[in-house]
Fold these 4 entries.
Entry 1:
Amino acid sequence: MVAMKRMLKKASLLGELGFIKGGGNINWFPGHMAAATRAIRDRLKLSDLVIEVRDARIPLSSANDELQPMLAGKRRVIALNKKDLANQNIMNKWVHYFDSSKQDCLLINAHHKSSVQKLKEVISREPTLLVMIVGVPNVGKSALINSIHQVASLRFPVQEQKKKRATVGPLPGVTQDIAGFKIAHRPSIYVLDTPGVLVPSIPDIETGLKLAAAGSVKDSVVGEERIVQYLLAVLNVRGTPLRWKPHNNKEAEGGSLNLDDNRPSYDLKDLLPKRKKPSLNKSDVYYIEDIVSNVRGAIHSPLAKFEGSLEDEGELGNLIEQQFEALQKAMKIPHKESEARTMVSKKFLTLFRTGKLGPFTLDDVPEPADAL
């Protein structure tokens, strides 16, 4: 038990590791965010309800601390989006945490109408509402608005020519202006979609790395390799790969599976969310499964053979280097080292962010007395 407590404490301080911390503080505050923050403050005064969208994988790290004092005085619902990508075993603990802090909280998937239905019911409690949706970049605010629109219009039809859709995308910073949408009438419901805004200075490296891992900070600001180093450190310290069950012996050895040469060349970038998903045939699905198996095996094997101490920074760093080498082989990337690590990192992040490596929650549930 004592060893476990030490490991959990280590996991909460991984951003301080030298090979990760060396990249410096993480800040991303382009000009449109400064203007958007001022506009949000002004319009908050007029809003009857605020839906603060957070990433279910980082329920605390995805909160904008500068907006919290203003949000505390409003009728607010915290919507933990992307619940399908989060660890279901602890999400109920997060809901209990917010409930114990007397804060309404819902677990949602912005792309599922059934999940959005409960949120729509909260919005519809009053006959006329101005709802503002806020959150950091890339937590799914615009996708949520579109889903609310679709669900609400079934009950409260809106003339077809007046319907609007919020622009969505897999990268942060797609929405840069505040846009208003009438999602229903009788009762009239108006929603304001706002740009994702971060604080001018992210308080600590750990928070910045979690935001980057979830895709709320541009990869180029942090560096893909640094983000993956952090994620591998988290996985190793938590022992997550040891709980992955190999599908076959080759995966357990970290080797690649024998793929049919006639199978299509699958670009992992295609795993990013798109408005219209291309149809996949059975061989495509098998090919993706093979990639996932190879990547899991490349992470699992070095950790299973590891005889050092995960509490030793140098030994943990060496383990991660071995995993990078195994990942390059598993992904069959023949490029020279400098380019290979970037390509490995980009593909790994795509798998992580799309949930192909399994559900993860990077934030730990704090004590109920802690601040939101």
Entry 2:
Amino acid sequence: MCGRTSCHLPRDVLTRACAYQDRQGQQRLPEWRHPDKYCPSYNNSPQSNSPVLLSRMHFEKSADSSERVIAPMRWGLVPSWFKEGDPSKLQFNTSNCRSDTIMEKPSFKVPLGKGRRCVVLADGFYEWQRCQRTSQRQPYFIYFPQIKTEKSGSIGAAYSPEDWEKVWDNWRPLTMAGIFDCWEPPEGGDCLYSYTIITVDSCKGLNDIHHRMPAILDGEEAVSKWLDFGKISTQEALKLIHPTENVIFHPVSHVVNNSRNNTPECLIPVDLLIKKELKASGSSQKMLQWLATKSPKKENPETSQKAESDVPQWSSQFLQKSPFPTKRGSAKLLEQWLKKEKEEEPVAKRPHSQ
């Protein structure tokens, strides 16, 4: 399942991360609808607003279906046929939609049949590993591997604000398949756009944490096909819905358990063996300083300016095996989470069992 996400990139950085080619092959940036409703957050929960990517044709019938816009929408789909005047009175949970029952439930089948497909944008999502012998649950942050490029360089070399801007500007957002709908209040008023995240069986790498995961669209081709409802049929689009192994993760603090906690601490990795935050040294201290001073703020579209880059290049990490029992064997080790110094190379670790 997926019940909590993070999306704290400033609006212009998120826009650049969503650059795409239209049907004519031209490089474009998606435009925003209601940008004032976007509130960057380290800890998004259902019923909050999150940015989603969708075809411009949903708003402008004359537009090409390959053109894209970003719109903040309510997490938790409110069906267009809902008759109550208060969306919170919806009696069932629509924050997630199981892929295996998507064509059975009218709440999801109807908007899907209308081509109302979207891509939910996030830095990553949180998931909790349940312990078999205790009631305690350990949260993890899960996201795309971040690839070092010539532009981003090395974290170890990022000592100036200019260098950090290049690093954060290169973050690859997680792109999750979703369905949206438009609900009109029975007594009149503005339409409410809302969405659900499609879920699938977990990949092998995440199965020890949870048996379900979001349907992640890995790559521009998958995103383009999912969004282009004018060209790609529902049947073809649903072939894109399957687990992906292309994710990495690290354990985080229990601070994230409370959705009211919207601080950088939600993302900072913790060591499960010593139960405290990993000690940062050298260049990683720069990242922590940034997180401590750049809390998410609601942006004013009229005063938008070039943002300071906002997400560190978490390009390599490893996860120590949890001391808590898991459902299947030892957790898969990942690469080292932060390079301590520019000249240091990550040391390969071997899986160990307990």
Entry 3:
Amino acid sequence: MVSYFVPRGRFLLKAGNLRQVVQQQHQQAQMQLQTTKASQPQAQNGSWPVIRHFRQFSSNSASKEAPLHHRRPPPHKFKQQLNSSQEVAQVRRNVLARWTGFLLRWAPMGICVFGAIEWQLQKRRCEQEGQPRTASELQSRIYCSLPLRIISRCWGWLAACYMPPTLRPYVYGWYSNTFKVNLEEAQFPEYEHYSSLAEFFTRPLKEGARTIDQEAPLVSPADGKVLHFGSASESLIEQVKGVNYSIEDFLGPLQTLEQANSGVPYAQALKKKQDGSTELYQCVIYLAPGDYHRFHSPAAWKPSIRRHFSGELLSVSPKVASWLPGLFCLNERVLYMGQWKHGFFSYTAVGATNVGSVEIYMDAGLKTNQWTGFNVGKHPPSTYEYDELELNQTAPATEFGKGDLVGQFNMGSTIVLLFEAPKNFKFDIVAGQKIRVGESLGHIAGSK
């Protein structure tokens, strides 16, 4: 039982005894009033008994002459005021509870109805314009507002946790069956060898499990699925069929002032040869969760700078890539730009949801999937800003040979190649094809 105390003078009285105390005070006041009236004649004759009751009389007279807002209300009025304040508080609580229940009951349904209407309106707009069904600006912002970076960081921490040996066959076995993992080609096919999920994801392959095509000028850098390939000579290039992204937003500004002041389109300014004998090409390869998660060099080339865009961590699955324009420009990515025997060459590892980190073996200072704060409803500045590192000044010159190991994803993601090649370069792949490390991506027609 809760006790409430009402202050009176220098004492605290329990609310349960309030009525009794008020009655006693009322009786004392009446007795003092009678005593005062009886002593008034004596006071007029100059007698001293008035002094004995001076304190009581002065307090009673002060209370009578006090303003209305300083008087203590009668007991029945005090009880009415107490009951009325309790009733007002109860009404407020009831109204708040009703509104809370109304919002919790109907707000999710309203959000779903609004989402369905927006989805159908965007679908109709795309059909009227004859374009693929893609996300609107509102849908893109809502998707980017999801706490995907927090989820990815939590998943990265969980994947790095120690796995008890007794659970490894069950957890890794379930994962292998779900995503069709081929452990026969792994260097360590026993589940007990991998102490964490991260080690299992980034498992190495047996020696000779992948054969590098030495005749092809360009080979696949990873095991995965070919999302798109083709020419990249325009400012907008396709990430999948019919869905574009900006090559300038993806790579960032040109490296030199000479290129920026050349007055030619961005894609043409990237090329090392300006005699018209070469063209810019691209190839996008998606790594699924069950694929081999390490990636290799597709050709012999030399990187000169590294740029790290710590943007979003959206899914890069084929369905999302075909729905969200500019996906590769929004996501966190690490790109290396340099040169190969035919001119410009860039190699980009794109991050994604639940990718704990992107590791580049030659670049120990690279840190990905870092906390960037809450950015609800808008893209963080890091989506368009980047950290740049000139590799030749900070470390010995690095050169990759065809098939050399470059790095690893701690979950499935995407590799994007943008390179300069002769105009007679022809791809040997088709969209949607499954490809493995070392297999040919294309050839130069007419060359031996």
Entry 4:
Amino acid sequence: MATSSCSLDIGPKTLIGVGVGLVVAGGASYFLYRRYLQYRDAMPLKWRRVGTLQQINLFPVKSCAPVDLEAGVEYDCDVLGLSYEGIRDRTLMLLDESNTMVTARGYPHMLLIKSRKASVNGIVFSAPGMHDLELDFENLESPGQDLHTSVWGAPVDAMLCGERFNKWFSKFILKMETGLKLVHYPYPKAVKIINPRLKNMPHITQADSGTFNDATSYMLMNLSSVADLNTRIKNPVDPLQFRGNFELKADIDEPYAEDHWQWVRIGDKAVFRSVAPCTRCILPNINVNTAERDIDGEPLKTLRSFRLFNYSSPALGIHLGLRQPGRVKANDVVYVGEK
């Protein structure tokens, strides 16, 4: 009685042929995927004007006030963020004795710490009840020891600035002689990993992580969106409470239009990729002029009612990653890309 078999007589030549076919198919798929990424990440050829830059904010110290500069100055935009004559956005940060970052979320009066340009590569800090203190980025009094810290789960090393800065900031923030350390970002490029909350965003890259920024090296606020929010709350908020680098005055009042932008160009050269919405913590609830928290939890409470989407916190504003360096100034025209 004959028996049937399900086995196949597969010889070496057949196996080689199948292998070559899989490699070819896999290679084609990889090629097509690479082509897709190149198309997806290619800068637009067409740009549409949407408004102008009303305000540019550069924050030398994380969670403190923006630097006071003359109107009309041009800022450099590079991969680390905004800079002006040696002063760079969020290149300084405060740590506690356990090397944990300290922000205005816990110490709202940090927002009252101001800075102004004093010289090339130098700024002067001021705060209520404190004497002025000058810092020269070219002559930091560091003992040469780096500290290990992190920004929202992204590890980063930082360089001490010097004991006199530690004492000044400790005295104003903690009302103590010690307890805080002012540190400086020592690297010429971005070294932090992508903020863990944003790692699944398709357009973000590690190079977008900036200095001591929470998420990325740039953030844009549409003032039309802030104006719409202010119609929904009892006490209107200052756009600065959202701590954006760029404040856009739109040609056409269209709140939340920025949610749909993929590419942004400012002026003739600086080009940015919109890489993530900016989800909000409690910091916008603090008045930037008085450093007082809103007793009703606004504007965060209202934002949660209509801007939560699928995030754990409401979104307002967009995080940007630089794709082409350039220089920007107030009143520059802002464009969005069209493909």
